[in-house]
Known about the structure:
This is Aspartyl-tRNA synthetase 2, mitochondrial. This protein is of the alpha+beta class. It contains 15 helices and 16 strands.
Amino acid sequence: ESANNLKAALCGLAVESVVKVTGTVRKRPAGQENKLMPTGEIEILAQNLEVFNICRKLPFEMKEFVKKSEALRMQYRYLALRSSQMQKNLRLRSQLVMKMREYLCNVHGVDRYFQIARCYRDEGSKPDRQPEFTQVDIEMSFVDQAGIMALVEGMLQFSWPAEKGPLQVPFQVMTYNEAMRDYGVDKPDTRFNMKLIDLSEVFSSTKIEFLRSALSQSEGSIQAICVPSGAKHFTGKDLDVLKQTAKAQFGQELSLVLVRDDGTLKSPLKKLLSVPETENLLSRAEAKPGDLLLIAAGSLRVVLPLLGNLRLQCAQLLESHGLSLRDPSAFHFLWVVDFPLFLPKEDNPEELDSAHHPFTAPRTEDTDLLLSEPHKVRGQHYDLVLNGCEIGGGSIRIHKASLQLHVLKNILKEDPSLLSHLLEALDSGAPPHGGIALGLDRLVSVVVGASSIRDVIAFPKSFRGHDLMSHAPDT
């Protein structure tokens, strides 16, 4: 074909049309190379063109920088999968799974098993959840908590993508009480500091009525977080949002203390604070000029989660104002252990419910407390956290029928006959055993920096369980 005809035919085709070009591959002329393309050093001197399929007008441009809603990308998934980022995500996912299989196949046996399983669960509509997901499920006998944790660390180190840098093991370990005390959540993001500060001692003799009232109640406490440069960067609107979050989500008032450049305070509390209280407050919080203090007073059960929530919110606000707090290329793995085995029921605090599930074994040294003070018992439950996201959880299980029966009947007030098959199995010589499940989609989404797990699943479902591309199910 003549060069002019070839050029006219190619220029007349819509983008994303499928063609076959026959010609001579040669180096591009000097100065015309494109280092951003894998084929950027070559070109084809076309001799013939065959059109396999002409593309219709598409619902969106096939360019990475063109923003498309998640619903649109799910509806036209066959187009979204042409995205280089989606293909990169799915390739990394595939490589990670293959390496995990290779590692686990080398350690499995009759007394242990693993599966990479597709699961269905009634999940909410959060970006890190969907009804259909994949998990790496590991179960082992004759194992303890340390053994499970070491196995998972070895598997992740072996399968970790090389381009993300080496993974250091063992991972940091933190107790549930330490996580709540320092971060206000049981899945802390340890890439940045901004820990919670206990100010109860600072105000132990205060004359400020609402602070005295808070300290007088059961589990009463005064807690704070110091936001570096918060007074300098946060707008009035930002501060209002923080107060609204405290009020709307936690039913709690929030006291703001801004430290001016000259070290003086800007706060409704200023005129109520004595000179020693002001000095002790700034010293305990290590507050500097330009910092912001968020102070909450009340029950620890409310105050700690409140400030844990605001800590993350403040990090987002600081980053929106150009400050760098959370390194997106850093991966901070963390084990959270020693969770309470039981928690008070929300509708009836006098009764107890399982914090994890009713089959979790108590810590050996806490077993005697099951008979006298079960609310103080710690469980052999462990969560794996990555950059503030829970990516896995498991436990060592109860393996004695008598202990399992006591938990079900006497503590949880459940009908043990519903689990008679389990009790009979445990009474037939069941060995000590435990396991863990890792959320594969969530792990990969954190590794690649995706905002939603649906960006690392080839054909995800909506939060209502629908496939927006095929309109299934149709009822």
